[in-house]
Amino acid sequence: MYSFRKWLAGVTCVAAIVVSGSAYAARADIEVTLQEASAKGAAGSGKVLYTITNTSAATLHVLNWETPLNGVSGDLFSVDLGGQPVRYVGRLVKRKPATDKDYITLKPNESRAVEVDLSAYYEMYRAGQYVIKYKRSADTLVREAGNAVAAKASGAAAPAVTLETNAIPLSVDGGPAPSSKQASSDLLGAINGAAAASTTFASCSNTQKTALTKARTDATSIATNSRNYLNANNTGSRYTWWFGAVTSGRYTTVTNHYTNLSSALGTQAYKFDCSCTESGTYAYVYPDQPYTVYLCGAYWTAPANGTDSKAGTLVHETSHFTVVAGTDDHVYGQTGAHNLALSNPTNAVDNADNHEYFAENTPARQ
Description:
By secondary structure, this protein is of the alpha+beta class. It has helices at 2-9, 138-141, 143-153, 206-231, 237-243, 248-267, 310-320, 334-343, 345-349, 352-360; strands at 11-13, 17-18, 30-36, 47-54, 60-63, 77-81, 84-85, 92-95, 103-106, 110-117, 128-134, 163-165, 167-172, 199-202, 270-273, 281-285, 292-295.
């Protein structure tokens, strides 16, 4: 699969290194530095060297997928050209909540580094000087930082963990423009003349095809139920639990999202690819490639309906498509999604799991 090979090729691992943290200790507990890659032929290519350093006096645990150390599978960087954001076009993944094995241990003064070809994940085909910055926060990146935030929310005292990063200019020579995509005026139009509401499969068994056909029907039902709830101007706990305090702007955005979700799931041509075997992953998509969904190992053990279900996963993944809702993955899991609604409603409205849990509505809220 070309896109997957490109994803693997986009990252070149660099051996872990240990450096003195004295220069950073006064500023932050975790330091992320970016610099233009210095390898021969790297100039103008869009490659950067990402280095993460534990500048604190304590061992810290960094969530692997919030870094590019083992590949980029999320929108980790802010990439601007001429003051305008550049679109992320790499994988967006629904995962199981993190466990111990998903964290990288960084001892005091320890660093790890990796060279990343940002042009494999962002639309950097225009020549010019880009501005690059790592954009994840300490509480999602570092386990101890997340624990401190949770402790503070419950009234307990806990030392904060701080993160500092830099922004760099990056000159890029440019490359071929991407293939044509749907026009914004036809956000939910049929793609390449494919039959509306059709479903095709790749590398799927008959059992998987049957499960996916039912899941799409169920996903359409819960997305439509969500749309109808919002069109009735309901502002009960179902909304506030997953999207936070009600404002007219956010409520309108969420309503538009479910209008698009219901339409896409009910009328568009989908392709389901069952070739992924990653056990900790439910599914992933490329946001600018509607409506192809890659199903992975965790998907097949999920319930048909309810929390983290097969139907809900299709809502989650469909929300990632730029032409539908353009959501990101700020947090995973019901606890994280609810806490996000309380602490940052704007990000909750932009988070795919919040959209899934609102649609699944398990346990039911009014």
